[in-house]
Amino acid sequence: MFNLHKRHSPPMVEITSHDVPSHPEGSVSITIDNLEAAARSRVQKENSDWAVKNVSINMVERSGAKSVNNLQAMRATMKSKNDETEKKNIIIRCPAILVENNFLYQPRVVSIGPHHRGLTSVQNLENLKWSSLNNIAQSDKSLGLYIKCIEDLEKEVRGCYQRNIGLSSNEFVQILLLDSMFIITTIFADATTEDKMLHWPLFSDLLLVENQIPFFVIEKLWDKVAKKIKGGEHYPNITSLLRDTPFWKKGFSTDSPVVDETLPADIPVVDETKHLLDLYYKWNVLPTSRRLSNPPRCLWLLPCCICGSKTEGDENTTIPSATELYEDGVKFRKAKSLNMFDLSFANGTLEIPTLVLESEKMSLIVNLLSHELGDPKSKRIVLSYVFFMDSLINTKKDIALLQKLGVINNKLPSNEDAARFFNSLGDSCAPTKVNAAHNFYAPVIKDMMSYSNSCWRNQWTSLKHNYFNSPWTIISLVAGGALLFLAFVQTYFTVWPRK
Question: Could you tell me the CA-to-CA distances from 321 to 182, 190, 325, 391 in Å, in that order?
Answer without folding.
Answer: 45, 41, 6, 6
